From TrEMBL:
<dbReference type="InterPro" id="IPR050749">
    <property type="entry name" value="Glycosyl_Hydrolase_47"/>
</dbReference>
<dbReference type="GO" id="GO:0004571">
    <property type="term" value="F:mannosyl-oligosaccharide 1,2-alpha-mannosidase activity"/>
</dbReference>
<dbReference type="GO" id="GO:0035469">
    <property type="term" value="P:determination of pancreatic left/right asymmetry"/>
</dbReference>
<keyword id="KW-0735">Signal-anchor</keyword>
<dbReference type="InterPro" id="IPR001382">
    <property type="entry name" value="Glyco_hydro_47"/>
</dbReference>
<dbReference type="GO" id="GO:1902017">
    <property type="term" value="P:regulation of cilium assembly"/>
</dbReference>
<dbReference type="GO" id="GO:0005783">
    <property type="term" value="C:endoplasmic reticulum"/>
</dbReference>
<comment type="pathway">
    <text>Protein modification; protein glycosylation.</text>
</comment>
<protein>
    <recommendedName>
        <fullName>alpha-1,2-Mannosidase</fullName>
        <ecNumber>3.2.1.-</ecNumber>
    </recommendedName>
</protein>
<keyword id="KW-0378">Hydrolase</keyword>
<dbReference type="GO" id="GO:0035622">
    <property type="term" value="P:intrahepatic bile duct development"/>
</dbReference>
<feature type="binding site">
    <location>
        <position position="625"/>
    </location>
    <ligand>
        <name>Ca(2+)</name>
    </ligand>
</feature>
<feature type="disulfide bond">
    <location>
        <begin position="468"/>
        <end position="500"/>
    </location>
</feature>
<feature type="transmembrane region" description="Helical">
    <location>
        <begin position="37"/>
        <end position="57"/>
    </location>
</feature>
<dbReference type="GO" id="GO:0070062">
    <property type="term" value="C:extracellular exosome"/>
</dbReference>
<keyword id="KW-1015">Disulfide bond</keyword>
<keyword id="KW-1133">Transmembrane helix</keyword>
Length: 648
């Protein structure tokens, strides 16, 4: 192997090996052709070997070597280690001649040892892995994944400090004990029902969205996607607080603190999550002053914002909490968003801007309001469907029940919540209600006032259970209505309350059906089998409570008590409370769902109906559409960030 070393290594010199043309000794120039060929072969073998050695060395050793070379060439010789410190922690000392060569050889040696050791370790690990069962490997992978997720979570949702803002006036958050012993007894009964509903959920459905009280296990519906977000806990904690169920409240708070996590791959309803979760968390925050509720509300709100990324700024009905991708319900007219859904965000979003200082929430809802204000309204009515891509109405269907209801409610409540300074909201409400009264409100032959549904120029004489909330809304909006019509609206509220009570009273179970007709001699009764169910809904009781607060007419407490008795008799089971499939049957079957709104709304309104008026006074509190009380924000004294002209 010494011969090649004696030859010039530069390839350029080889052709000069022709006779007489070189400075090489003569005898070498006269080499025979076969000898030359052999030499050439040896030379190319040597070159191949060098390249091979370079390419077949493991990557890290090549690079180290290369680095060393570069450093030796490019880095000026300095005494201090500075950047010259290698990963090993050893300081490289550059440029020391023969001593360097020796040192390099040693380094190469140790590098090779290290590579060998690495390979052996990798081989060993691979062998061990192969010995493991599929399950063990799966478990290992899962543990790794969990660790990565945990680390991500820590980085992702670390509590962001929120700006300090003055706490709005919160008064009358508990107690409200009625002076009359019989009323107190009734109130205690309602509190006991709440405890039964909560305890059953605690025992059989804890952490699930809702409860199946017959099967005694967790339940969920498509409004929560595939999530398991403890909807009942979040929806119920403020009711627990108001009722003075402190242990249960603490338990709920702890679950929220430790388990409520919105980084989930689930497609949820923006509206439902807003009214139940954000509304519930904000109310729990204002009532109890516990920061955790505020932080969770803000974390969730951020996840809803991508739903507004549409060509018009009208949000999608659903959003994936993880990806932020939104879409609309498949059943909605021509890909439309729903009036009652995108129109029921204002209260919560104004509070979010107030608490966070982030103008985005306020601007989003104000943008919706401005866009609606510019649109033509057939007969002054708002259709229930609006396409978020084109900004055009879908089917001309208007209702004060499902699909439309809380849009009107939030116009009125935006005004009330702003301490009556948001006069634009009040005017929009007044105009909308006037059109509704003209086109949708009718009196039946039997003298019952009802609110029908407008479908493409035709009035359907059918009223939904959901529309019964409007009795309370008319009463709540009476004060401040134009042309001194306060008395008129209070009266309209009373008439709706009466009609809805009739819809309960004309059943076997004394519980109201989902929808009832005023047609062909029928009055306030359901006709179709699939409209005869009662799913623990609150709207009729909500109206009784508002009417009670404004009139103190004892009939409202009496009607409320009838409902308590019927619910306790026909809906109570050992595992909680269930809806029933037919209120006209003396032997009804259960639907086996304890809805979260039963705890958030139905039981809360019943409890308030039998409490004194100083519990959550209406001058200071405005209830969102899921019965979560939010304090009045005296916006006259506060400038909300973003309250300058709205933009998207
Ligand atoms: C509740 O979730 C809310 O009241 C909503 O506005 C419509 N109805 C359900 C309960 O019936």
């Amino acid at each position: 192997m010494t011969t090649p070393a004696l030859l010039p290594l530069s390839g350029r010199r080889i052709p000069t090996l022709s006779p007489g043309a070189s400075s090489f000794p003569h005898h070498r120039a006269t080499l025979r052709l076969s000898e030359k060929f052999i030499l050439l072969l040896i030379l190319s073998a040597f070159i191949t070997l060098c390249f091979g050695a370079f390419f077949f060395l493991p990557d890290n050793s090549k690079h180290k070597r290369f680095d060393l070379g570069l450093e030796d060439v490019l880095i000026p010789h300095i005494d201090t280690p500075k950047e010259g410190k290698h990963a090993s922690g050893q300081v490289i000392i550059h440029g020391q001649g023969g001593h360097d060569e020796h040192r390099h050889r040693e380094e190469e040696e140790s590098l090779r040892d290290k590579i060998r050791a690495d390979h052996e370790r990798a081989l060993q690990e691979a062998k061990e892995k192969l010995r493991k069962s599929r399950e063990e490997l799966k478990a290992e992978i899962q543990t790794e994944k969990n660790k990565v997720m945990e680390d991500l979570k820590k980085k992702d949702v670390g509590p962001k400090p929120l700006p300090p803002v003055p706490m709005p006036k919160v008064v009358g958050v508990s107690d409200g004990e009625p002076p009359e012993p019989d009323v107190k007894e009734k109130r205690d009964k309602i509190r006991e029902m709440m405890k039964h509903a909560w305890d059953s959920y605690r025992q059989y459905g804890w952490g699930h969205n809702e409860l199946k009280p017959i099967a005694k296990k967790g339940h969920s519906t498509n409004i929560f996607g595939s999530s398991q977000l403890g909807a009942t806990i979040v929806d119920a904690v403020d009711t627990l607080y108001i009722m003075g169920l402190h242990e249960e409240f603490k338990d709920g708070q702890e679950w929220i603190e430790q388990n409520l996590d919105f980084s989930v791959n689930a497609e949820v309803s923006v509206f439902e999550v807003n009214i139940r979760f954000i509304g519930g968390l904000l109310a729990a925050y204002y009532l109890s002053g516990q920061e955790v509720f505020k932080l969770k509300a803000v974390q969730l709100a951020e996840k809803l914002l991508p739903a507004f990324n549409t060509p018009t700024g009208i949000p999608w009905a659903m959003v994936n909490l993880k990806s932020g991708v939104g879409r609309n319900w498949g059943w909605a007219s021509a890909g439309s968003s729903i009036l009652a859904e995108f129109g029921t965000l204002h209260m919560e979003f104004v509070h979010l801007t107030y608490l966070t200082g982030n103008p985005a929430y306020y601007q989003k809802v104000m943008h919706i309001r401005k866009l609606l204000a510019k649109m033509d309204r057939p007969n002054g009515l708002y259709p229930n469907y609006l396409n978020p891509r084109t900004g055009r109405w879908g089917q001309h269907h208007t209702s004060v029940g499902g699909l439309g209801d809380s849009f009107y409610e939030y116009l009125l409540k935006a005004w009330l919540m702003s301490d009556k300074t948001d006069t634009e909201a009040r005017k929009t409400y007044d105009d909308a209600i006037e059109a509704i009264e003209r086109h949708l409100v009718r009196k039946s032959n039997g003298g019952l006032t009802f609110i029908g549904e407008w479908k493409n120029g035709h009035l359907e004489r059918k009223m939904g259970h959901l529309a019964c909330f409007a009795g309370g809304m008319f009463a709540l909006g009476a004060d401040g209505s134009p042309d001194d019509k306060a008395g008129h609206y209070l009266q309209l509220g009373a008439e709706i309350a009466h009609t809805c009570h009739e819809s309960y009273d004309r059943t076997v179970l004394k519980l109201g059906p989902e929808a009832f007709k005023f047609d062909s001699g029928l009055e306030a009764v359901a006709v179709r089998q699939n409209e005869k169910y009662y799913i623990l809904r609150p709207e009729v009781i909500e109206t009784y409570w508002y009417m009670w607060r404004f009139t103190h007419d004892p009939k409202y407490r009496q009607w409320g008590w009838e409902a308590v008795q019927a619910i306790d008799k026909y809906c109570r089971v050992s595992g909680g409370f269930s809806g029933v499939k037919d209120v006209y049957s003396s032997n009804p079957t259960y639907d086996d769902v304890q809805q979260s709104f039963f705890l958030a709304e139905t039981l809360k309104y019943l409890y308030l109906l039998f409490s004194s008026d100083d519990l959550l006074p209406l001058e200071n509190w405005v209830f969102n559409t899921e019965a979560h009380p939010l304090p009045v924000l005296h916006l006259g004294n506060i400038t909300l960030p973003g309250s300058e002209p709205a933009q998207r």
